Protein 1
Amino acid sequence: MRTKIELITLAKQMPKAELHLHIEGTLEPELLFKIASRNQITLKYPSIDALKTAYKFNNLQDFLDIYYQGMSVLLTENDFYDLTIAYLAKVHAQNVVHVEIFFDPQGHLERGVTFEIQINGIKKALDEAHIKWGMTSNLIMSFLRHLSEESAFETLELATPFLDKIDGVGLDSSEMNHPPKKFAEVFKACRKLGLKITAHAGEEGPPEYIWQALDILQVNRIDHGNRALEDTQLTAEIQKQRLTLTVCPLSNLKLCVVDSMEGHPIQKMLQLNLNATVNSDDPAYFGGYINENYQALIESSDLTEAELYQLAKNAFEGAWITTSEKTCHLVELDKMFQKSPPYLYT
Ligand code: HPA
Ligand code: ZN
């Protein structure tokens, strides 16, 4: 049996896919101040340290209030490029080989930053990471659920010239009182356009919101999904549909979705045969990127080598990539775990 230190090393070294990552949530305080200064924006916080002390959250809304303030420094294509390339460089060093990234267009449009500026800056960095490191990516446009469905439709309209650069749509921001059914029509339009569908559900919201994501939005996966565990019929349905759950351990801890890392339900999810994965959500705000999320889980649970393998495998299987791309990644993953190649993806 491997020791915890060996498991943490393995988690760091293994090839990984990250499926739940808000690019605006990777804005580290240092870069935030640098961009604010070049854009001549005066921040509410006098220093990096003062800003960091504000990173204490009792719930999702506490975090979102700071998250929207932070992203307000982003104005130019270069700002979006700098933000994205900094994240990609960091996770390339953590052996991430495939990323699926959310961005929140409405959070920038309302400040006068066009869709074109946002997507060109992000895409330039994604293309560069592909050329330099062979890292692959998908881009997910997320609708802000505290805004109206009409606003989501307007955003989809603005996205139309760029749909070749967008792989899927998501639903994020304040979950309570903004159920998935509020967005039934716009997600139907997105499905018709051939976009993949995901939605944050069951982070704070009840199992009913996850049912709506499944039945009404017809999601291809679920972001978070923690509260699915309260409903055995729901977990059976998620299992039946082989839906991936993009779980975010440090985020859950920092937003008080769980009381302690020891009490995190991810092992329970695996035991129920749910396709749970490990992700960082908003790493600049929650104290760690993907490797730190794995490390926190290993340190505070009896996660086994087989479970670690399953978590990494689930991420490649849940990624929006081709079957042959999945097979290639799983071959590399198996080498790390000394399973006999070739691995056959079924
Ligand atoms: N939940 C909902 N919306 C978000 C999050 C989150 O964890 N991060 C950024 N937007
Ligand atoms: Zn999220």
Note: Residues 341-346 have pLDDT under 50 and may be disordered.
Protein 2
Amino acid sequence: MTQASDITAIDLSGTWTVTSTDAMHTASMRVPGDVHSALIAAGLIPDPYAGRNERDVRWVAGKDWAIERTFDLPPETLEGDWYLDIGSIDTVASVYLNGVLVLDADNCFRRYRPAVTEALKAGENTLKVLIHSSIAAGARRQAEQPFFIPWSTSNSPIANGNMLRKPQCHFGWDWNIAIAPLGIYGEIVLRRLEVARIEHVTTRQFHHADGAVDLYVTATFHAEEPGILPVHFALGEERVRLDIGVAAGETQLTHMFSIEKPALWWPAGHGEQAIYAVRVETPTETVVRRVGLRRVELITDKDEAGSRFALKVNGREIFCRGANWIPADALPSRINPVAVRDLLQSAVDANMNMLRVWGGGFYEPDWFYDLCDELGLMVWQDFMFACNLYPSTVDFLDNVTAEVDYQVRRLASHPSVVLWCGDNELVGALTWFEESRRDRDRYLVSYDRLNRTIEVAMKKAAPGAIWWPSSPTSGYLDFADAWHADGSGDMHYWSVWHENKSFDNYRTVSPRFCSEFGFQSYTSMPVMQTFADPEDMNIASPVMESHQKNAGGNERIAGTMFRYFRFPKDFPSFVYLSQIQQGLAIRTAVEYWRSLKPHCMGTLYWQLNDTWPVASWSSLDYGGSWKAMHYMVRRFFQPVAVAAIPSKDGETIGFSVVNDTAEPVTVTLDTWLVSLSGERRPYRSIEGACGPDRAEMLFSVVSADLPEDALLFWSFKASNGMAGEGHHVSGTYKALDLQASGLTLDVAPRGDGRFAVTATARGLALHVMLEADVPGRWSDNAFDLTAGAQKTLVFTPSEHGAEPTFHWLDLHACQTHQD
Ligand code: BMA
């Protein structure tokens, strides 16, 4: 039986009580968790995601909240030094133990470990975390600034978020609900300091020419007074004991493991994801770091266009295919590893190998990066600064230094984390505000102080890791317009969405690496039904407008439909068409930019996921189901893919093949002319080859040779088994007098909870989407059929045992009542 004095840690997670400091509201609260979720569970506020409830819960962030619990400490346990281990408090908070202030916290991205020995007592102890309103704290800090620091009001209806080290999207974003959540998110544990605690475990690897790797593991210990600490370093079967004399404060100890014939970690699609677990053990603690052995370089060599931007992993340049990641949920209590794994798996299933953890959210928890390591998803990790200007006062920069030091040491061992980036769009933000336009010198210097602080702290914490100053930027100390300059660096290309340019406009730029570009769509109907009543199902209803956070977003979606399509006949058709056009927009960009390889070496579209049910640029619905675009993504991100790309003058249509694999491939391409009634006529067939890691033009068709009332269909098969198909329309879809496809569905339950659904077309069916009335995933979707053709898809309901009904939409059906 455990003696009380053997207790070295008391886990304080569980049920706490939350009370507004004006004593008006009280509820029990699950910790880790957020206050809004506790109030929802207690029935004190409605679900903010439903209807227009967002407005009705805003008051929560205007109050101060005390989160409290008691715990017992047996008298014989009192001896020794004790500290609290707090993973994350959101954000400006005072922590009291038995009425004694033990911590003032103001950074949600830092781990705090205050000493609490003096405040502890035998028997019942009371721990209170008093979280101050971030609205009030932001205003107070803004008033204390030596000069005004603007924030993006078009993103954030809640002011002064830039004053606080807290996810910037909590104050509202052009896809997020603005409720400024607050709470305690990480672990919260009372721990006894047994000689010393492990503060950090970091690793560095040195790769030798013969393939062997030296892995240096450094443990940093914190002690209150000098002592002797037995430490074990372990890697697989190898376990080494080192006794170390620790001083008061920090002491470091490094051990080197030599690994002969190492198994390397590779990005998805390029090899296996070998993981080695490194352990550092003391008598009371074990810290595990999952390490992958890989070398990463960022190639920025100069060339004729400017300079390259290519990631090289283990000596191979990797074309980065992926998307931007935002927090998994607007309410932290709703985030869980199962749902996040599903989102990440969807990224890999759609042939992605990289995600950019965007700078307006969180540094994600360890398990997020474990999943990325395991799945082979490289992570472009932003530091958490986005779209605003920021203070550069000494106290702010000190806070940032501590944050960067902690986060980088926590995460840098993950093989998935390949690049650290200073911020999101802070250079561009210098041009967005009257104040910074008027006095650019002041704000630019202020920015550079912040950026330099991040860089110095990052390089100290992870020497040798890759640093990129900002996204987007054309290069080091380049403060020009990286939204429109495409010769160097990474690019955010927003002209199609934010500047209302046509889809073709994507082909007017040749990015070296496009780290953001996006096009909005509506969230799928089953998700709509979770927040809107039938009478709200209209794009101009107040509920729909409150679930569209980008000013002008609905007009852009509708306006694009006018540009390319006949207007959809009803609301579900509008939703469907919004998703199809989104997929077509992003496909236009990706297919062209991939065809520029190796000039372009990456495309990360905006954005993978949603934080709540909203109209947005995501390809995955809130909840993880695939929008039409995600099925298209899987095709246009296939490692070997063929695309029909019109020339700039429109006179030819070139068939480009791109090969991201290390082996050469041969490709058989067949093309057909397809009439509006869906009859196919063989046109040209060709065999071509594409070397490893290249893009080639297979052949071109002269546009004038194509009959006006026919579509160009094509399908390809590559020698490595990859295959695909598509169609090209010379003008716009709206110019086509499409006819009813006469699609029929034949549903066969497979007996394993899944359903085989066979679609058969009588005529031409474009952009067919099969839909179920329950959540789930299709084996494929967003496809075409010509007359007499069939396709069988498998539907897997999210809930086993569901009995869905199925229906379909295609381009003709969505714009006419005749089907
Ligand atoms: C980019 C991002 C986000 C934003 C998105 C859509 O600039 O960095 O700030 O949500 O555009 O506007």
Note: The chain has a mean pLDDT of 97.
